[in-house]
Amino acid sequence: KAGVTQTPRYLIKTRGQQVTLSCSPISGHRSVSWYQQTPGQGLQFLFEYFSETQRNKGNFPGRFSGRQFSNSRSEMNVSTLELGDSALYLCASSPITGYSTYEQYFGPGTRLTVT
Amino acid sequence: QKEVEQNSGPLSVPEGAIASLNCTYSDRVSQSFFWYRQYSGKSPELIMSIYSNGDKEDGRFTAQLNKASQYVSLLIRDSQPSDSATYLCAVNWQTGANNLFFGTGTRLTVIP
Questions:
Q1: What is chain A's mean pLDDT, rounded?
Q2: Measured between alpha carbons, how far is B45 from B36 in angstroms, rounded to an integer?
Q3: What is the dihedral of CA A40, A43, A44, A45, to 10 degrees?
Q4: Looking at residue B71, what is its pLDDT?
Q5: What distances in angstroms separate CA B33 from CA A92, B23, B70, B72, one per listed residue?
Q6: What's residue A101's pLDDT?
Q7: Which chain B residue has the Cα nearest residue A58?
Q8: Which of A68, B14, B58, B72 lies in disulfide reach of A49, CB 3.0 to 4.6 Å?
Q9: Comparing C-alpha atoms, which of B5, B28, B15, B2 is closest to residue B88?
Q10: Record: contact A102-B46, CB cut-off 8 A
Q11: Contact A72, A14 (CB under 8 A)
């Protein structure tokens, strides 16, 4: 099976702009979660989508949003970018069924740099 | 405040030795526990999941869970230089949800 894919892999944006990141989960996986990784804060949960609905949300401002499509692909959007949004954004998919229900498999990430 | 704590290291072990990585968590209702390995510049890779008290073995890796002590560990037997990476402990607090809380990671170096 192909793994989780994320596009683009690298992105440079200017403060105030907005950005959309895309994630395609492993085939058959229905849950998609997004995480932000920075050297200072480590890995932090952003939100999780399941069946096109946001099921959980982390402690991030409303500038961070996401959605999931009927084919389980997901996008996240960050509006009004700030310098502090520079990070590695990771998408993870999970099968939601069977023994490995809660196992999450990460994509390669999108490295966002805000200047 | 839910917390996952790991010794940041670095932890250095000679090749062939056993590496022991530890993690404590703050919430007794935690359901699922995971160990991820992250090489520099790469994304986290799932190594082990454990849901019940006791040991779970997979090849050279053994995860140990003690819910009473709120403690989960990872043992790596016959450590290899390729095991040199940061190991992240993750906890899923909530049944029916996929929102992992991660520790800050332990950097492991295996010395040839």
A1: 93
A2: 5
A3: 170
A4: 93
A5: 16, 10, 11, 8
A6: 63
A7: B99
A8: A68
A9: B5
A10: no
A11: no
d(CA B13, CA B98): 33
Query: Would you call A83 helix, strand, or coil by DSSP?
Result: helix
Q: Which chain B residues have a beta carbon less than 8 Å from that of A94?
A: 98
- Out of B43, B97, B102, name the one closest to residue A107 (CB): B43
The residue among A90, A43, A40 whose CA lies nearest residue A66 is A90
Question: Which of A56, A102, A103, A111 to mutate to test binding with chain B, by most B CBs within 10 Å of its CB?
Answer: A102
A102: nearest CB among B44, B88, B98? B98
Q: Give the C-alpha separation, B96 to B92, whole Å.
A: 10
Distance in angstroms between the alpha carbons of the first and the last residue of chain A: 37
Whether B94 and chain A come into contact, CB under 8 Å, resolves to yes
Spatial separation of the C-alpha atoms in residues A35 and A87, rounded to whole Å: 10
Q: Which residues of B2-36 are buried (b: 16+ CB within 10 A; e: fewer)?
A: eebebeeeebebeeeeebebbbbbeeeebebbbbb
Contact A90 B43 (CB under 8 A): yes
- Predicted pLDDT of residue A97: 64
Q: Which residues of B touch A48 (CB under 8 A)?
A: 97-99
pLDDT in tens, B57-91: 999 999 999 999 999 999 999 999 999 999 999 99
Provide the residue type at B12 as one letter: S
